[in-house]
């Protein structure tokens, strides 16, 4: 204990030193709030404030020290290690090593888990995409994959993103191996298999650009309504919330969430970040703080918004620079693990 206290103190001194000596892209003051995010979310009646994480990051001790603080984070989502290519790289060959590591971390620190994800067009192994499966064959492949993965983690996952990103921005179904072979029936096939394997897990469809009005949110509302009418199990819609700085509309976001929850599903912000075109100025970081407040406060205003997950808490491990060249600094902690103004913005949202 004495050692760990001393170590923690040393670490924070090191972090301060690092923050002061590196050429950061901004000299803006960091966060001042000491309120931890998960406790603040729970005090506001939400289930959790959580973070994505990924297996390679778990060797980074200062990173894991913050991640493990359950006052700060009450929920984890694996960024990659529960995806199809990681879990079933060859047909009927399952590898749960990475997913198990993150579940063990969550269990060891009293956090709940979101499972991410079961059926998605991306990060599929070649064996799924390279064969012209019949409808019956692909149905069985989906059922085996979903049943095996959900059964492996039965009782350990609060919510599964059963279907990830099924829609195009124009509201049509995304063309992929699943839709092209089975039509939209692949969605109910996967949801029913997941429900059978873990009747207590919340089953979600997760999607981006539901934050804005337009054909995509309309199509999602229609999809949920159709699934409900057909008696297909669906418990929630994940609103990814990968924002661009300054593009938050609280009124659109809230209206869209209420359109979904009025159908009898929960909603959650599942992958929140707010990316900035680089280099970020001090004004950008202040705008980002304001954007985080606005987004988080909408979850507070919507009773059936269960929680907020950031798509990793630090710029050190953000997916943004690799996926959106020229953009970055999207997370509430900077790449030196120092809290940014965005942190205070989140606290303000949670306490709104
Ligand atoms: C991203 C991961 O963060 C990256 O590490 C990976 O290279 C690509 O996928 N929507 C999702 C997530 O549902 O699974 C994606 O995660 C980000 C966009």
Describe this structure in words.
The chain is an alpha/beta fold and 352 residues long. It has one domain (41-350): TIM Barrel. The protein contains 14 helices and 10 strands. The chain has an 8-stranded parallel barrel, surrounded by 6 helices. Helix 7 runs parallel beside helix 9 and helix 12 packs parallel to helix 14. The longest helix has 20 residues, at 2-21. The chain is globular and about 60 Å long. The site of (3S,4R)-3-hydroxy-2-oxopiperidin-4-yl beta-D-xylopyranoside has 7 residues, from loops. Residues 31-349 form the GH10 domain.
How is the topology of this model organized?
Layout: H1 2-21, H2 37-43, E1 48-53, H3 61-68, E2 75-78, H4 84-87, H5 97-108, E3 112-119, H6 126-129, H7 135-152, E4 159-164, H8 177-182, H9 185-197, E5 202-207, H10 215-229, E6 236-239, E7 242-244, H11 250-261, E8 266-277, H12 282-301, E9 305-310, H13 320-323, E10 327-328, H14 341-350
Parallel strand pairs: 1-2, 1-9, 2-3, 3-4, 4-5, 5-6, 6-8, 7-8, 8-9
Antiparallel strand pairs: 8-10
This protein binds (3S,4R)-3-hydroxy-2-oxopiperidin-4-yl beta-D-xylopyranoside (XIL).
The site of (3S,4R)-3-hydroxy-2-oxopiperidin-4-yl beta-D-xylopyranoside has 7 residues, from loops.
Short description:
It is an enzyme of class 3 (hydrolase). 43% of the residues lie in helices and 16% in strands.
């Amino acid at each position: 204990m004495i050692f760990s206290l001393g170590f923690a103190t040393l670490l924070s001194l090191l972090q301060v030193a690092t923050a002061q000596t590196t050429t950061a892209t901004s000299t803006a003051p960091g966060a001042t709030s000491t309120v931890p995010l998960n406790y603040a979310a729970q005090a506001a009646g939400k289930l959790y404030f959580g973070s994505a994480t990924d297996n390679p990051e778990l060797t980074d001790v200062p990173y894991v020290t913050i991640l493990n603080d359950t006052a700060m984070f009450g929920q984890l989502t694996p960024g990659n290690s529960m995806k199809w290519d990681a879990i079933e790289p060859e047909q009927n060959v399952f590898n749960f090593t990475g997913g198990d590591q993150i579940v063990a971390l969550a269990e060891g620190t009293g956090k709940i888990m979101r499972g991410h994800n079961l059926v998605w067009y991306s990060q599929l192994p070649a064996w799924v995409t390279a064969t012209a499966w019949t409808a019956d064959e692909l149905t069985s492949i989906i059922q085996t994959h979903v049943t095996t993965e959900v059964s492996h983690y039965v009782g350990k996952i609060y919510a599964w993103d059963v279907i990830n990103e099924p829609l195009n921005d124009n509201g049509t179904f995304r063309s992929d191996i699943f839709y092209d072979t089975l039509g939209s029936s692949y969605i109910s096939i996967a949801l029913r298999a997941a429900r059978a394997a873990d009747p207590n897990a919340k089953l979600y469809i997760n999607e981006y650009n539901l934050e804005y009005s337009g054909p995509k949110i309309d199509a999602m509302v229609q999809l949920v309504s159709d699934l409900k009418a057909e008696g297909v199990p669906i418990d929630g819609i994940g609103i990814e919330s990968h924002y661009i700085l300054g593009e938050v509309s609280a009124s659109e976001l809230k209206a869209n969430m209420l359109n979904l929850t009025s159908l009898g599903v929960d909603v959650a912000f599942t992958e929140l970040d707010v990316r900035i075109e680089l280099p970020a100025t001090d004004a950008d970081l202040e705008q980002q703080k304001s954007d985080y407040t606005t987004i988080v406060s909408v979850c507070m205003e919507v009773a059936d918004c269960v929680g907020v997950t950031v798509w990793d808490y630090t710029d050190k491990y953000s997916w943004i620079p690799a996926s959106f060249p020229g953009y970055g600094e999207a997370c509430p902690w900077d790449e030196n693990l120092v809290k940014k103004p965005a942190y205070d913005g989140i606290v303000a949202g949670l306490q709104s």
